[in-house]
Amino acid sequence: MFNKTVLDKTSMNNKMETKETYKFTKYQFAEQVGITTNAIRMRMRKGQYKAFYIKEDGRFWFREWPVEAQNLEKLKKRRQRGNHSKNSPYPNHSFYENNQMKKYLAAKGELTPEELALVPVIERKIKEISDNDEITYFSTYFDPSVLDENRLIKIGKSKERCLEFRLRGAQTDCPYELTLLTYVKEECEEFYHEKFKEHRVRGEWFKYLPIIKFLKKEYEGNYMIPEERVENFRKIILEKNYSNDMSKVDEKFKDDSYICNLWFNLKTNT
Q1: What average pLDDT does the structure give for the chain?
Q2: 8 Å CB contact between 114 and 98
Q3: Contact (CB, 8 A) for 216 and 155
Q4: How far is residue 213's CA from residue 235's CA, in Å, rounded to a whole number?
Q5: Please, which residues have CB within 8 angstroms of residue 223's CB and are 6 or more apart in sequence?
Q6: I need a surface site. Which of 104, 110, 119, 224 has the fewest CB within 10 A?
Q7: Same structural domain for residues 145 and 257?
Q8: Residue 47 confidence (pLDDT) above 80
Q9: 205-222, pLDDT tens digit by residue?
Q10: Is residue 158 part of a domain?
Q11: Strand 53-56 vs strand 178-184: parallel, antiparallel, or unpaired?
Q12: 136 near 156, Cβ under 8 Å?
């Protein structure tokens, strides 16, 4: 009887000590660690914090997170979840424009009635520019084992400012390295898909030769590639041909149209 009483008192004391130690909710513990409750939950799934919590009556209770550990957590590098200045490294221009628009909308409350009256006009103009920014691009791949008769070409669409990002996305679906040939603004993607439907192989992929023949006939001298590619390609040409004396650079290499045409001819072996 004496032993049972002692055991009961010991058990009760242990429970009281446990409640005094493990007295913080998940939300309170997350605040101590400096992360969200969802992050706590995900880390617990991976086996972390085992020494810091117990489960009682279906709820998790946590003991205090050490001060030195709190300071260490604060020193950890935080991931950059968004950018809010023009000099920030945006993944593409559309992210920058999106944040600029957020700032613009937030500033509406500080505008005068006269300035507010101009807002709908500005918004329509922005939408008009965005709608007119759509282009149709032509890209293909090169493999020595594939003849031109068997090669395919992709006809896709994108916003002009997002083209490089779109091409990187298309690359994930192709086993060969894709290269951009040119893009056009005159007609939409649907126009070319309908025009070359008899040459369609699958989805946005068409037989190579009929499309190339059309591009050479209709757009010779007017090919287009993104500005960044123009500058990089020009730099490669000049370094290769005029590395000894840049003062002798032929004037034609300063013309963007010439660089774009040179790019297309090089990529199509013409």
Answers
A1: 79
A2: no
A3: no
A4: 29
A5: 181, 182, 215, 260, 261, 263, 264
A6: 110
A7: yes
A8: yes
A9: 999 999 999 999 888 888
A10: yes
A11: unpaired
A12: yes
Using the structure block, give the residue that is written with the tokens 């799934």.
45
State whether 159 and 260 are in the same domain.
yes
Q: Are residues 120 and 141 in the same domain?
A: no
Q: pLDDT tens, 130-160?
A: 666 788 999 998 877 888 888 999 999 888 8
Residue of 145 and 1 predicted with greater confidence: 145
- 213 and 249 housed in the same domain: yes
101 and 208 both lie in a single domain: no
Dihedral angle computed from the Cα positions of residues 69, 75, 79 and 80, in that order, rounded to the nearest 10 degrees: 140
User: Does 220 lie in the same domain as 125?
Assistant: no
What's the structural domain count of the chain? 3
Q: What gap in Å lies between CA 96 and CA 92, rounded to an integer?
A: 7
- Give the position of tokens 């009929």: 210
Please give the Cα distance from 185 to 134 (Å, whole number).
Answer: 7
Domain extent for 183:
134-267
Please tell me whether residues 39 and 126 are part of one structural domain.
no
Tell me whether residue 87 is in a domain. no
Classify residue 160: in a domain, yes or no: yes
- Residue 7 in any domain: the answer is no
> 10 Å Cβ neighbour count for 31?
15
Nearest C-alpha neighbor of 92 from the set 154, 155, 168, 157: 168
* Beta-bridge partners for 59: 56
Residue 193 has pLDDT above 90, yes or no: yes
